[in-house]
Design brief:
Layout (H helix, E strand, L loop, with lengths): L3 E5 L4 H12 L6 E4 L4 H11 L6 E4 L2 E4 L1 H9 L3 H5 L4
Parallel strand pairs: 1-2
Antiparallel strand pairs: 1-3, 3-4
Length: about 90
Amino acid sequence: MAKISMYSTGVCPFCRRAEMLLKSRGVTEIEEIRIDLEPARRNEMMQKTGRRSVPQIYIGEVHVGGFDDLAALDRAGKLEPLLRGQA
């Protein structure tokens, strides 16, 4: 299973939905980078992704994007291969 990291905040409903979707696909561990608790990490996120909103999800080294992007990958049948490192 690929390493999952997600930039998030404590009050973000889309972050929780992304977490639920990933767990439903067998993900047991998500590195959560809380930009509300570590403001310097927000700048890091914006530099890496070019985006300001959360969640910003990485599967391995691949920047997936936000929840809508993650859900679209899942609907297209491309999420599980990416999680297994086969994308």
